[in-house]
Amino acid sequence: MKPADHANVFVLVPAAGSGSRMQAGINKQLLELQGQTVIEHTIDRLDRHPDVSGLILIAAEIDLTAMEAIAKRRAWPHLYRVITGGATRQHSVLSGLQALAAHPDCHDDSIVLVHDGARCLIDPLTISRVIAGIREHGVCGAALPVRDTIKKASDDGYVIETPDRSRLFAMQTPQGARFAPLLAAYQAMTAAGRILTDDLAVMEAAGHPVFLTAGNERNFKLTTRLDLQMAQWILNSGPEPSDALIKS
Ligand code: CTP
Ligand code: MG
């Protein structure tokens, strides 16, 4: 029998983007849904997961005062720090990893999840599946099979390729790995000037095998106005079935 894995679980929450596709004039994570900001919905759900022992919120410089005020008011038990992010999501996550290194309970084998601040309908079972996937496989992220056929096209609009849909997945977050290899991969890719759009891509580029586990259709990223309306509708339609399974 394998020994029990008591490694701590930390979550980095990148929320330092500008939300340009939302066209709201402010960071989409500061928009309100049912009387509270998007980032509060996200952190509420991460903070009450029974395995999570620390959280870092990564904010844009321009939003830092607003995010710090929210953090002070909400006083989430597991929130460790609010820090400033960088020019890309990759830079923001790297700043989060560097800040996490100072946490007294962060060790090389600690489990680190990265979860987009804009995915405010994250459910406890998806978080648990990703944690289990990291314990088992080292690197893991939440994903869903793509619904539509995906085509690769040239700049002038001609189709180059139609990949086999049964092998294609749309990535969600959480995604993560153990602290030491995740930090090393982020440092290496950033130093090499390779800018990647998700955490698994950083680990793949550094040569690690990565494993996919099931995401959740509700765990979409608020990107456009329609996403905001869908999230509102889901929140208005009452508790989610999986919420009942893990008590806060
Ligand atoms: N993010 C970040 N730092 C950046 C860019 C993005 O922390 N420099 C965060 C976003 O705040 C978001 C997540 O990464 O929670 C995923 O990014 P995305 O949905 O693309 O958000 P934005 O970049 O803000 O939106 P857009 O691309 O429409 O401008
Ligand atoms: Mg973006």
Q: Gist?
A:
The protein has one domain (9-236): Spore Coat Polysaccharide Biosynthesis Protein SpsA, Chain A (Alpha-Beta Complex). 32% of the residues lie in helices and 22% in strands.
| Total strand segments | 11
Proportion in β-strands: 15-25%
CATH topology: Spore Coat Polysaccharide Biosynthesis Protein SpsA, Chain A
CATH-wise, what's the superfamily? Spore Coat Polysaccharide Biosynthesis Protein SpsA, Chain A
Instruction: Note the gap between the termini.
Output: 30 Å
Count of DSSP-assigned helices: 7
Taking pLDDT < 50 over at least 5 consecutive residues as the criterion, the unreliable ranges are 244-248
**What is the makeup of the main sheet?**
7 strands, mixed
CATH 2nd-level architecture: Alpha-Beta Complex
Strands in their spatial order, largest beta sheet: 5-4-1-6-10-7-11
**Topology as a string of helices (H) and strands (E):** EEEHEHEHEHEEEEHHEH
Q: Helix share of residues? A: 25-40%
Describe the model:
The chain has one domain: Spore Coat Polysaccharide Biosynthesis Protein SpsA, Chain A, CATH 3.90.550.10. The chain is 32% helix and 22% strand. It has helices at residues 38-47, 64-74, 89-100, 124-137, 179-191, 199-205, 225-236, and strands at 9-15, 32-33, 36-37, 52-59, 79-84, 111-114, 139-145, 152-153, 159-161, 169-178, 211-214. The strands form 3 sheets. The chain has a 7-stranded mixed beta sheet, sandwiched between helices. The chain has a two-stranded antiparallel sheet with strand order 2-3. A hairpin with a 5-residue loop joins strand 8 (152-153) and strand 9. Bound molecules: cytidine-5'-triphosphate and magnesium ion.
